[in-house]
Amino acid sequence: MRALQRLGALLLCAAAWGMLGAGGAAAQPASPNRLAASHDPYLLEHAHDPVDWYPWGQQALDKARRENKPIFLSIGYSACYWCHVAQRELYRNPQIAALMNRWFVNVLVDREQRPDIDHIYMLARQIMAHDSGWPNNVFLTPGLQPFYIGSYFPPKTTAQQEGFPTLLATLHKNWTQHPAEVKRIAGQIAQAMQAAAVTGDASAPIEPERWTQSAQTEALQRFDALEGGFASASDAARFPQPPLLNWLLSRRAAGRPDAAHAAVFTLQAMAQGGIMDQLGGGFRRYAADPGWSVPHFEMMLSDNAQLLAVYARACAQTGLPDLRWTAQRTADFLLRELRLGQGVFATAIAAETGGVEGATDLWTQAQIDAVLGQPRAQAWFGLYALTPLRPGVQAGVLRQRRDVAERLLRAGELTERLEQLAPERRALLAARHRRPQPRRDDKIVTADNALAIRALAQAGMMLDDARLLDAAVRAADWLWQHAWNPQQHLLVHQWAGGRAGNPGFLDDYAELARAYLALASVQHDARWNRRASELATAMLQRFAAPDGSLRSSPEAHALPFPVPLQGDVQRPSGQSAAIAVLVDLAQRSGEAEWAEAARRALRGLALQVAARPLDWPDLLQTLGGAAGRAVWAASTPPEQQRPADCAGLPLGACSSDRVKVLWQHGAGGHALQLHIAPGFHINAHPASAPNLIATTVLLDGQTLAGVRYPPPQIFRPAFAPQGIAVWEGWATLQLPTLTDAQRKRLALRVQACNASACLAPSLLPIAAPAPSPPQPSPRVGRE
Length: 783
What we know:
Distance between the termini: 60 Å
Helix content: 40-55%
Structural class: alpha+beta
Strand content: 5-15%
Strand order of the largest sheet: 1-3-2-4-5
Number of strands: 30
């Protein structure tokens, strides 16, 4: 944006303004700050920083508004290497902390505790910086609009990057001397965020076959036939993308063995690389190179749970012993390293030890020789090699030698060789355990544990391993007893420090219900179906909008921006998981209400899925399954068709694409509830000026008398500082008494606008009111 470039020029011009020296201000004492009252492990790690940290909440927001200070929002998580580098170099520096405390209100967020805040401001990062990652450091106005963003900032200016103290001074000067310009830039970014987060409309076509073909074509075009993986040609990093691999495996049954081959080839390449822990099993977060050799060392429960399920499925589908070996090693890692005493699972293992990334996992040849002795080390290096983290570094990461592993694979001898080296592997693992170990984040995240439960249940069945199923059952029962409140029908998102945390998000409800349905498929026990049904009922009550679309956050009404949809790139989205649950319940119970809830939820995603089908592989797998096809085959047309005056306009360009009309019926008679898409408004009735199109109910093309319109909200754009009477979000129009025949002849004249433009006006026909569908029954199966 031109405004962002202007802010960059301001920063450069102001850089010479300088910064406070080390003795320029008194530092805050390093006594515990407000984060000491938290139970979240990541926040507690910062409880003794001299920074005056606030957790996300009203207290920090009130202080920023009261003192007219910008907010420094830092979003990270406990396993994040660069988050801890920033803590050591910036937040524990008393002089830097003094600048932060003097000029800003400082807020720290654990992205795993508040994924909604993380997703909102990661969208800002993508808009402003065209990248993503953590820490995500965002400077906000007191109204929570971002105006500057970045990731790691060095403590001193380098040739590549401005130092953090200089940046703080520059932004403070801009805020105090150029406030109008900063707020104008923040307003433009906020508009872009609102527009990007708009979810879509219920009239978009549901086209699973077209989406599937489009996604499959793009995936196979992206497939790296030499190294495996599906990154773009310009991206050196490789992420496992478990939902994509799982969906491609499913395409074999649809007559596309080439798709399944791409997945299997990638799984084998990953298992040979440094992204897999060649000693202890399990997978690191991602690889920094196309050959999967040099990993980012953090190990996440969510990644390993999904990969366990994918490797077990690939093994069951192909019968290849190397895939079974990898699946079993991944399961061993989960049970050995991440399982807590209660039977549930910790969230992650950090990337660093003693401030050095990967220190516990790096080896030199001399160290391996010393542990194994020369003859055994020679046998070890017959299969394994060390890949340096970077040129000139002696220590490296263990991986299988690609040429040897591929030759053994073709001969069907790789698994045998891996098993022959088990004594050497155990000796090296024992030596590694004697080293200092990385931190483990022991908080219990419901959705992540649900992924593990589902994976263990599926892998236990596919690998015929009863211990995995037993582990799944134990974790599933613990979550039901500790995370679910049966009186309030409330699920918590996380459990930390022995205490229940914040309310659950959509994916917590959906993934736990999905895990229980997976257990129901392998155990004939009525409790799993019953629990899944209770969770799904509560999920619809808490997260379903009146049009049936599913919100991600239980606090959507209190957030500064809509939570953007995430797709299924690294893990299933809450929406995709929820639709999978509803489809499964519809098949198991035969109750039409579950199927209709699934269809209504999908309609709210259709525009996003159509725009980027490859981002939604978990959803595509649900749509392509037998149960999914049955649900969509029985689908009824959307309640509200696109009006004739939108003909020829692209989706999203007509007012009817942004405004939905729902009937309400109560003691006061019939009413129309208007749902206005986030980021848009419509003119109130009466309109503020004759040239504006007032929202009006019509009967036979004429204004209907007796309609009670709600009071307006005042919108003040730059071009109309006096204000415009509008409605945003929801508006309820109370109708006069009408006959059934008259209600069938109603229409709504409306024009939707955002802060910069108005869409083509629409005349929306209003379908006759129908009774609301009954709530889904909490009963599935029998006791």
